[in-house]
Every structure is written in C-alpha cells, then in structure tokens.
Amino acid sequence: MRSLQDIAEEYDFLDTDDRYRLLIELGRELEPMPDALKTDATLVRGCSAAVWVYPTGDTERLHFLADSNAAITKGIVALVIAAVQDKPAREVAAMDVAEALAPFDLKNQLSSNRTQGVPNMIALVRDHAARIAAG
C-alpha cells in the first residue's frame, strides 16, 4: 500500500475526474478481504455503501483489511487505511485521522453522499486500535 503522503502528492496534481480514477485505483489496490470477515461486526455504520473494516496484527503493528461494495467508497476507505496502516495501535488510537486526510479536501471534492460515512470509518479504526492497545 502506498503511503498517505505519496497519495497526497499525486492527488494534488490531478483534476477532479482523475482524482476519482485515483480513488478507484486505490480501492483496487486494497489487500483482499475474505468474505467471511464481512460481517455485521465489521460493517461501518452510516455509510451510503457497505464498508467493512477488520483489524489484524498486534499492538506494535496494527494492520487493517477493508472493503466496500462501491468503487469510490472503497477508495475513500483505502485513504483512511493508508493513514493508519502498520502503525502501533496506541499511535492510531490517539491519531487525528481526519487531520491526516485534510489535504484531500474530501468534503469539497466528493458529494456529501460519498463522504458522510468517513467520520464513522475513522471512529471504527480508532476504536479497534484503542481496544487492541488496551490488550
């Protein structure tokens, strides 16, 4: 997975249509999430499309699997995951993920329908991290 900084640098140079294409590409690059992990417990509430996020790894290196049934939304969850992937659980739990995503200006780049679930994606990731950090 590309770093959030690398993605931001590329995103910065693109026009709106190419930004959509980049998000779709990021979604396609996500590590496959087994269907067995797509359960009610891993479902992100409040998203217009179905989004699942599942934590793996340990307190030192938290790793997430994620998926969505919509291409743009899958790209958005890929951005969220890129911000936190493979970092210590304690760091992720304390991280301001919304601030890390600020350079993408998602609220102004995408429809509110597509971005309404972003805070819930972030909350789920941070909640998972806090639980894992606490042991």
TrEMBL record:
Pfam name, any one: SufE
InterPro entries: Fe-S_metab-assoc_dom (IPR003808)
Limits of the Fe-S metabolism associated domain: 13-126
Superkingdom of the source species: Bacteria
Similarity field: Belongs to the SufE family.
Name under which the protein is recorded: Sulfur acceptor protein CsdE
Organism: Tsuneonella dongtanensis
Encoding gene per record: csdE
